[in-house]
Amino acid sequence: MRITGKTRLAGIMGWPVAHSRSPALHNFWIDEHGADGAYVPLAVRPDRLAQALRALPALGFQGCNLTIPHKQMALSIVDRVDPLARRIGALNTVVVAADDCLEGSNTDVYGFRENLRDGAPDWDPGAGPAVVLGAGGAARAVVAALIEAKVAEIRLVNRTLPRAEQVADELAAPRCRITVHSWRARADVLSEAGLLVNTTSLGMSGEAALEIDLSRLPPSAVVNDIVYVPLETPLLTAARQRGHRTVDGLGMLLHQGRPGFEAWFGVPVRVTRELRAAVMTTLAAPR
Ligand code: ATR
Questions:
Q1: Ligand 1 center to residue 190 CA distance, Å?
Q2: What distance in angstroms lies between residue 134's CA and the mean position of ligand 1's atoms?
Q3: What is the mean pLDDT of each run of 10 residues along the chain (287 residues)?
Q4: How far is residue 171 CA from its own chain's centroid?
Q5: Residue 171: how many CB atoms within 10 A of its CB?
Q6: What is the dihedral of CA 78, 84, 86, 91, to 10 degrees?
Q7: Does the predicted model carry a pTM greater than 0.90?
Q8: 159, 167, 170, 204: which to mutate for ligand 1, most atoms within 8 A of CB?
């Protein structure tokens, strides 16, 4: 990579930011396409987020991604918010528009949808209810994507029930019934389901395992874990052993980066086996 006065710049703001794999992802695409661009980690303290975002046009940045803990706060800072990001209550991508305004969007919905499409192309949204475990920011994006896919029933399961109720209220949509269930009921709600998605942090390296009895899940159901460290979580291993189609979470991370990259650097990109391998290498590397 050679940086010149014409190099297009983008980055990711987070606090901390060192854990982020987005620089590996975007710089892979920059190298792959020989784009004149650079993507840098930006360690921005929460109390300086407004200042940092406002500085993007002044510094000549094309935009940035946002990660923990900035995704919600950024909503009230940017000039224009995409309606989907507004509904979800979080944004992860900012583009500096031609008039220097900051445009915020949420590409996690797109990332989830494309990853599911890649991993289970014949998943039928009409096959049965979708069970979503968790009610955090990731769950909101997953629920929004499932509504968009025209799933008729979403069973939302969370340890803290009021949080699930809030998601169900805020994302309520016609033609999709969202029911909320206690964590204790997580195995019971699997009957007749066509899809099971884990959006909790359980099963991630260093976290407790996700304990769930899959015996009531119909054999045709697809199981997707959005955790990608490890790539095959204990949930996916158990599901695979029972004969379910499984979809890992790495593709969601990779696909959610595409809209931002294409807007900042003006080059269409794809999620390929080589990209997965390159980002997986960074996942294995110590931080
Ligand atoms: P994200 O933005 O990545 O979704 P989050 O907002 O911190 O992260 O949400 C984490 C999710 O994992 C939540 O649904 C959380 O449940 P609570 O709402 O009850 O906190 C869930 N989670 C984390 N640890 C858990 C555990 N030990 N058992 C069950 N659920 C857990």
A1: 19
A2: 6
A3: 90 94 96 96 98 98 96 96 94 97 97 98 97 95 97 98 97 96 98 98 93 98 95 96 97 97 97 94 75
A4: 17
A5: 21
A6: -50
A7: yes
A8: 159
